[in-house]
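Forum: Protein Structure Q&A
Topic: Joint prediction for protein chains with partners

I've read a bunch of threads here and the consensus seems to be that you should model interacting components together rather than docking separate models afterwards. I'd like to see that in practice. Below is the full input, 904 residues plus whatever partners are listed. Could one of the regulars post the assembled result?
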Amino acid sequence: MRVKVTLDPDDMPRNWYNIQHDLPEPLPPPLDPETLKPMSPEPLSRLFAKECVMQEVSTEEYIPIPDGVREAYLRLGRPSPLYRATRLEAALETPARIFYKREDLNPAGSHKPNTALAQAYYHSKEGTKRLTTETGAGQWGSALAMSCALFDIECTVYMTRSAFLQKPYRKTLMEVYGANVFASPSSNTKVGQKFLAQDPNHPGSLGIAISEAVEDCVTHDTTKYAIGSVVNHVLLHQSIIGQEAVEQMKMFDAEPDYVVGCIGGGSNYAGLAYPFMREKLRGKSDAEFIAVEPKAVPSTTRGEYRYDFGDTGEMTPLFKMYTVGHTFQCPPIHGGGLRYHGKAPSMSMLINKGYMKSVAYSQNEAMDAAITFARTEGIVVAPETSHAVRATIDLALQCKQKNETKNILFNLSGHGLLDLKAYEDKMSGSLVDYAPDDATISRALETLPKVS
Amino acid sequence: MRVKVTLDPDDMPRNWYNIQHDLPEPLPPPLDPETLKPMSPEPLSRLFAKECVMQEVSTEEYIPIPDGVREAYLRLGRPSPLYRATRLEAALETPARIFYKREDLNPAGSHKPNTALAQAYYHSKEGTKRLTTETGAGQWGSALAMSCALFDIECTVYMTRSAFLQKPYRKTLMEVYGANVFASPSSNTKVGQKFLAQDPNHPGSLGIAISEAVEDCVTHDTTKYAIGSVVNHVLLHQSIIGQEAVEQMKMFDAEPDYVVGCIGGGSNYAGLAYPFMREKLRGKSDAEFIAVEPKAVPSTTRGEYRYDFGDTGEMTPLFKMYTVGHTFQCPPIHGGGLRYHGKAPSMSMLINKGYMKSVAYSQNEAMDAAITFARTEGIVVAPETSHAVRATIDLALQCKQKNETKNILFNLSGHGLLDLKAYEDKMSGSLVDYAPDDATISRALETLPKVS
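Posted by a regular:
Agreed with the consensus. Here's the joint model:
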């Protein structure tokens, strides 16, 4: 039985797919953080590469992947293989067929280089000397540090202090690639100083780290800011995942009935899902799309669809998205990439309009599935990815109950080799589950500006 | 410019290549550890799978890869891509062309599954219920634990106590795959108890861990022992690396002038080198073969070619090989996979007869090259592999000096994501170099039995 399909390097897709071409209505515009009025894209070019700002608002169906990005993709793991999980299927005794796309097979270990390489490439073309960014668990920071090394750009990373202390080797990895890594909140920025004054050992948050990276950017010449999720151009770059998977599912002679992925900001799942969603939006597919979030940060399952800031320091534009509020304190789950208050605007719209569903799992439920997956398929997935594995297994067990031969495709967004503490905690029974109470979420949502 | 070639899964080689078919003379026989007389292979089947014992003494040129092993190879990263290091070449300003074979792209992160999967497969066919083994840095233990999970065999790993304490996540990884991991010396075995009596905090050694794994095997029914390097059948299984690389170098339209790899027991380098060595042994190639060892354990550069035990406890057969003596205390270098007193008998013969050269580097020299490699090619290699990178860079710089366009091929035997401490120590300037003095080596060699 076929367990793996690859694509020849020459057959790697030549275009990214832009979901904005097919959305049921245009995305609501971002709002200026000072005036709360709709903002034009131009000011974003103080932060992002000009090409990325154009992509941010483009409604072209396809955007060509530049040769320099293609070469970097080829060098670093693309095209990535697509597998059939025959051993997991057998262990579950399910008639369902389970497929997974491997985004763990590049040196940074996750899907993040798909956009990090693209952003670094555009910045190198536009003369950017230094990039700033934030990172939580470190996947994004590692990807950007690697990409900056390849395109000869300096890299400054603000890493949430809790992760900086708990995951020293992610920091080391970024430093191997030549990046400067600071624990956030740091004394480098005014916003960092403010939080440090409140608590010299402040554990930080992704929202605060974003604020610091943006402030560092706007207060320094020839410095720009790179972003790892949420915004349109990042999701565009990630579409290479699904563009490949569409071809590879054909090689398996199968169409997915379910497309599954975990969501933090939404970029890995959008990357896999959107090229399949294209067909659904055109009425040509009945596939179901299942976005999986942690119960600890339940943006889409318990939050609201409304305008919110992208960061804690209220420096970024506001986006219309599912959010639990930018002041929500994300609990310290191991899947640090899922510890973000909001979700990508395009994905939020698709969930709100019923094109996608979302479900939530605790980290014990998720890591339990990860161990089953490791012992059957041999791969140790990231704690973030374990949420997608859990949902996949539950769908496969439903298929068993109903005796349905469905095709389930999920995104294996990253490996867990730098997150083995999550496995250790699970196996020793010391993994803590978090679920905020309603009052906590309400309080965070009350701080949001009222925008019609 | 082409940077990567892949093989279609259907084009994965169907045979392992057996160097014993082409060696200039038969390998000297192993000696019985009690009588010091040549031993027949039959007693080895108390330890190894019967099929592996037959392979151990076979002189057939090719041995077919069973379908069950092929399927596991396909699932877990094979065929692996071959890359051209164009960015490293540019950084070195060398006219040489540098190629590398990726053995880091499977879930265990090194070449070790090539034989772990094969051994576990044969054992599952022969009804083995439990496998014991030793591990130092943990690559081998991880590979066997993963393979045992896939073939439903219990797995017991004796891990040198120093690594057990220094690399807790390698232990976690093995446990994720369901293995039982013990710090060695342990109280499970008589030999372990002996060393614990000398020192309750004994740091252990690979040689002691081998003795424990063998004792655990021979004192328990339905239990066999799996081995990660040195012996013929392991090197045979690793030949899949070179079998693929031979085809892939043709796709690059290039023949290697230099074939480079690091050596601990010798298995990753033999895996890449032997299918190319085949041509040299038949007078059809002038390629140079460079085996790279650590200065801390200089078996081939400062040891002797003579009979020695495979383990510290003197329980294994004696092999004729390059050795610094089985009582030699290997210094605590990060590249734990290179901390072994002896080298594979076939490789030792090839070095002794001048078909291969060997060189030695300190870990600072090696890790320096690893950082250059990460910042140019994007890949963080294992500390073991860094020795091969160092030799490759030095060859490329020689080519620059002589203005020679040579092709250098090296084996990227594993990634360094679970060894980032080595990078941290290098970057902070705290990496210690070790080189035993002559008296230390002489003392260890003096303890060897005198065999004609």
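Chain A is about 40% helix and 15% strand.
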